[in-house]
Amino acid sequence: MDVQEIRQRLRDAPHDLGDFLHGLPDDHPIQIALRTYSLALSLALGPALLPFITSRKARAQGFGRVLQIVGRELGVTAFASAITVGVAGGAAIRHFWDQWEDRTPQGGESQDVVGKVRSWISSLRDSHKTFLSNVISSTLAVALLHSRRKHAKSAWVGRPSPTLDLSLLLLVRAIDSLVQLAFFKPSEASQRDLPQSVREQRTADRLKWSTRLDAIVFWACSSRIMWCFFYEPERLPRSYNKWIMTLANIDPRLLEALRAIRSGNFSYTRGISNPPDLVTSLSRDLGYPASWGNPALLPAYGGPEANETWNALGVSGRRGRGGLPCEIVHGDVTGGSCTANAAIRGAQAFAEAVAIYLPVHVLPTLLTRPRKLLEVPRLISTLLSVARSASFLSAFVSSIWFAVCCTRTLVLARLFPGISHDFWDGPFGCTFVGSLVCGASIWIERGARRGEIALYVLPRAIRACLPGDWLKSGRASVRWAERLMFVLSLSTLLTAAIHRPDTLRGLSRWTLAFVMKGPNAGFWRRKRLGTSAPPTPRAPSPPKHTASGSIKR
Q1: What is the rounded distance in angstroms from the CA atom of residue 137 to the CA atom of residue 139?
Q2: pLDDT level of residue 157 (50, 70, 90 thresholds)
Q3: Eight-state DSSP code of residue 322
Q4: 268-326: per-residue pLDDT in tens?
Q5: Mean pLDDT, the chain, as a whole number?
């Protein structure tokens, strides 16, 4: 082979590789690996490199820092590589498993150990084979993810596992798939003999109960998350705390005062504040006298005695109640009007929510059917959906604030002036009521979106319920519990994507439909073309011959 021929082959190599890849079916392990790696790499590099675009401080670190991040995410133990092993590895194992069964002689069955194992393997259902294949690949994936920290046991002590949020996300999606399979997505065989009207009625009933269950899950999760935000923020992811803080627009010193009341370091009845300037500094910064934030001078109870104190301090509009004046609680948003405070904060949250939900509603259509956005009915429908989602978030924020004011000022504290404001401003007072009330805003959202929102907050609520000391202890039980959770959850999702994709919802359905079956899958084809194309059919399994020569279906 001369040099010219070698050069020609090198020039043709990209085209030959492209022809080879185009010749593979969409569900081939190589195709799955390419789609998984590209998607996972974009999810890893996107958030890591975004600060270099938006932050001058990040850009000051230089181009070397960018290369360091890219090199880290391209490593063998990086997120993209590990997830590719977990997803495409299971498909590859199942692919070779099928080839091995096809090439295995179907003669007389051996009675030795190998023969019994082969007989047992042949008796497994297709879904069981897929699940076992995914268990093997998922085990390798979590081993790669955790291998970065295995060299030092102390790396697991003092902080939760960096993959805990990912594992909880997979767990919640897997549980949802199993719940859908058990209660809301019956098999086609069980529905085949039912009349059409009965099937439609049962489908409508299941959808109704599914959306109700989603709303209950969101209410319970949001209550726990908001209570932890007020009192135990270390139980929530730092980025999630920061996002809630931005949306709530609350002064950090007010949060510290709430936590000090819970711990006993701030009390109206005992007249103590530790540190002494915790709320007085907030009062001065807002333009009010420092005495308005001093618990030694504020009335602990309501009633006529409180009115004399308010007259001496120059506070109006708080007759018959104790505790901090509303002007301090509302911050720099408004004065003493509780109604105006809730309305203004709701309007601010609506504006911020529009910026959040506009890409969420527009990008899927923009990526699949951009011309649809030029149609006036479609554009109006999209904008109405954005407004509805923004109204949900706006109601979530404003309802917390109004519930707080109703508890400590407008209703309960007025009805029961003999109860100390150490209780009304404590962990089971106004913030507790606000945390319980805010979740009801989910009913503003469409039923189809309630499930996705509930699945978004559920992993964070579960993390908030886990013992923090145990998560940060570095014990082997923590590591193995997370690894088992990761393996079983990812295996369940990948198996459902192949055999029961109808049990997947929202993000998991979209992502796995693209990864496992490609852009030509029925779901994505319908999204792209806007047609009623049927779902992608599952290829029937080839008949397996038993030892007696009969065909096993």
Answers
A1: 5
A2: low
A3: -
A4: 999 999 999 999 999 999 999 999 999 999 999 999 999 999 999 999 889 999 999 99
A5: 86
Q: Residue 3, Cβ neighbours under 10 Å: how many?
A: 7
Residue 273 phi/psi, 5-degree rounding, is -150, 120
155: which DSSP letter? G
The enclosing H or E element of 15 equals: helix 3-22
Label residue 359 by pLDDT band (50, 70, 90): confident
- Pairing, β 544-545 against β 272-273: unpaired
Amino acid letter, 393: L
Closest CA to 390 of 343, 359, 350: 350
Instruction: Please report the DSSP string for 274-306 in residue order.
Output: SSTTTTHHHHHHTTS-GGGG-TTTS-SS-SHHH
Q: What percent of the chain has pLDDT over 90?
A: 55
How buried is residue 358: exposed, middle or buried, by Cβ count under 10 Å (0-12/13-18/19+)?
middle
Among 362, 293, 359, CA closest to 331: 293
Q: Let me know how many helices (H) and strands (E) the chain has, helices first.
A: 26, 4
Which region among 307-321, 371-385, 418-432, 531-545 has the lowest average model confidence (pLDDT)?
Answer: 531-545
Determine contact, residues 268/305, Cβ cutoff 8 Å: no
Q: Which two tokens stand for residue 27?
A: 């569900």
Q: Which residues contact 205 (CB under 8 A, 6 or more apart)?
A: none
Distance CA 394, CA 343 (A): 9
Give the model's confidence band at 232: pLDDT under 50 very low, under 70 low, under 90 confident, else very high.
Answer: very high
DSSP 306-321: HHHHHHHHT--S-TT-
- Whole-angstrom CA distances from 317 to 340, 413, 423, 429 are 14, 14, 21, 21
Average pLDDT over residues 414-438: 96
Torsion of CA 207, 212, 217, 221, to 10 degrees: 130
Give me 190's structure tokens. 């069980």
With H, G, I as helix, E, B as strand and everything else as coil, classify residue 544: strand
Token pair 């010219």 in the structure block, residue: 4
pTM of the model: 0.85
> How far from 501 is each of 60, 171, 201, 493, 496, CA to CA, in Å?
46, 17, 22, 9, 5
* 8-state DSSP, 259: H
- At residue 106, the pLDDT reads 60
Buried b (16+ CB within 10 A) or exposed e, 60-72: eeeeeebeebeee
pLDDT of 192 above 90 = no
